[in-house]
Amino acid sequence: MGLINLLIRDPLTFALIAVPLLYSVILHELAHGWVAWRMGDPTARMMGRLSLNPLRHLDPVGTLMLFFVGFGWARPVPVNFGNLSVGRGGFILISSAGIIANTILAFFSILLLRLLAPAEQSIAGTALYFMAQINVILAALNLIPIPPLDGSKILMGFLPAQMGHYLARLEPYGFFIIIGLFFFGFLHPLVDFFRWVILSIISVFLF
After folding, report:
1. Torsion, Cα of 175, 178, 179, 180 (10° steps)
2. CA 75 to CA 95: how far, in whole Å?
3. 188: domain range?
4. Is the Cα dihedral 164, 165, 170, 174 positive or negative?
5. What does each C-alpha distance from 139 to 21, 35, 83, 163, 192 come to in angstroms?
6. Distance of alpha carbon 39 from its chain centroid, rounded?
7. Of all residues in the chain, what percent carry a pLDDT higher than 90?
8. Does the pLDDT at position 3 exceed 70?
9. Cα 61 from Cα 71, distance rounded (Å)
10. 9-15 long-range Cβ contacts below 8 angstroms, 24+ apart
């Protein structure tokens, strides 16, 4: 079910989901560009992508899919790996940056929920709950090792060059493969496993 139905039925809940979702996706992409910039590639900075302005990141088709289908995407931040002064390690770190950003956002959302202990039905409590859930799910989804998701690029950083090339060739068909695998339920156990790993890591730092 897309967010458009939620907007019609419950505008407040829509806002409490849509705003955290929007900025979680933006910060995910911004993290890729920021880490690339710190490692020597100014492409994202020169193109104005190191910004919190949603208009610089939103993909028209991805945004429509989000509202009408329930999932979507932002425009990937451009990275010129030829500008980097580091090798595979830098490639892996840049590819991991969005996932790390989402995990950090989830951590602080859960931490604030524990410290502030807002009432369960309060606006603050609901917003923090959705912020935590959205970021855990975004991090888990992006760990799937199918192009164009970040997990595939992290995997490419560890694979021999020829195998990484074969994996990269799947990218034009990646979203169709992912949607098909989700439709038949094959990816649900993998996403659940990644969610468990992320929440386990967060829980280590909460105690």
Report:
1. 120
2. 15
3. 3-206
4. positive
5. 12, 17, 27, 24, 11
6. 21
7. 52
8. no
9. 11
10. 12/123, 13/126
More confident residue, 71 or 80: 80
Pick from 67-71, 162-166, 172-176: least confident? 67-71
pLDDT for position 57: 87
Question: What's the rounded Cα separation, in Å, for the pair 62 and 67?
Answer: 9
Q: How many residues does the chain have?
A: 207
Strand partners, 58: 74
Q: Check residue 118 and give its pLDDT.
A: 77
> Would you say 29 and 59 are in contact if contact means Cβ atoms under 8 Å apart?
no
Phi, psi of 72 (to 5 degrees): -165, -165
Cα four-point dihedral sign 85, 149, 164, 198:
positive
The answer to whether the CB of 19 falls within 8 A of the CB of 130 is no
Active site includes 120?
no
Q: What is the pLDDT of residue 12?
A: 79
Catalytic residue among 24, 29, 147, 153: 29
With 90 as the cut, is the pLDDT of residue 152 above it?
yes
Neighbours of 199 (CB within 10 A): 19
> What is the identity of the amino acid at 7?
L
Taking the CA atoms of the chain, what radius of gyration do you get in angstroms? 17
Number of domains in the chain: 1
pLDDT at 1 exceeding the cut of 60: no
Q: Is 120 helix (H, G, I), strand (E, B) or coil?
A: coil
